[in-house]
Design brief:
heterodimer, A: 52 residues, mainly alpha, 63% helix, B: alpha+beta, 23% strand
Chain lengths: 52, 192
């Protein structure tokens, strides 16, 4: 992850696997730095779409 | 999200997904009849991982046929069905044969609950190495974070499992017991 002042940027991976790993770290950082209400609202889009 | 390591407790203030609501509905019935611990992928999802799942895995303690029958009847009354059989005797037999059984909402096989008795000592230990996740709408008992990481990263090892482990490692980086992780790692590496 690249940190530019307060904003964190997702580092593109060299291949699909590395890209996915980078995104897992990026998202985990988002979860850590935002309220549960915020991240869960986004997460629910993925989960709830599976259950409709 | 607040993790109190000493109290073995995580407080979550998330907006529940439809999956979380289903899990709470199921567990609220299950826990009246038998001790349980949620294991595997749903733990990472509950704690924020951005993926869906087709099943929620859990261990239940060994129970008598009579207790299982009461559990089965209450699940059935509340709209759940067993995907493996309609006969409680067969459910009991499967469980005792170290096989997993699956329950879901009637007519909706996905997502489902994969239930099994613990097979090995390390599985039995999950019942004394757990965390309670407290949400406004209810509580869930999950296996410890260290145990979850070790099984995902060093036993199951698929890309998805390694990503699940990584998510927990990143979220709880400074609160994990790395001695415990190393100890459990040595045990799971010897599982055949």
């Amino acid at each position: 992850m690249k940190i530019n002042k307060e904003k964190i940027f997702l580092e593109p991976g060299k291949d699909n696997k590395e890209d996915r790993i980078n995104f897992v770290k990026f998202w985990a950082n988002y979860v850590k730095t935002h309220s549960d209400e915020d991240w869960s609202e986004q997460q629910n889009i993925i989960i709830n779409s599976q259950m409709q | 999200m607040e993790y109190n390591k000493e109290k073995r407790e995580i407080k979550l203030y998330k907006k529940l997904s439809e999956l979380d609501k289903l899990v709470l509905d199921f567990i609220n019935i299950l826990k009246k009849h038998v001790d349980y611990v949620i294991i595997s992928g749903y733990i990472s999802i509950l704690l924020g991982r951005s993926r869906a799942t087709e099943d929620v895995d859990l261990f239940i303690k060994r129970i008598s046929f009579e207790k299982l029958l009461k559990l089965y009847e209450e699940l059935k009354t509340n709209g759940f069905e067993c995907l493996n059989t309609e006969k409680p005797e067969e459910i009991f037999s499967y469980l005792n044969s170290r096989l997993a059984i699956r329950f879901s909402r009637k007519g909706k096989p996905i997502p489902n609950f994969e239930i099994k008795f613990p097979k090995r000592i390390i599985d039995e230990e999950t019942f004394s190495d757990f965390i309670i996740v407290k949400m406004q709408e209810g509580e869930l008992k999950i296996s410890s974070l260290e145990r979850q990481i070790v099984f995902k990263r060093y036993y199951l090892k698929s890309d998805k499992d390694i990503e699940d482990a990584l998510h927990i490692e990143e979220i709880f980086k400074n609160k994990l017991d790395y001695n415990k992780i190393n100890k459990l790692k040595r045990i799971v590496e010897n599982i055949k």
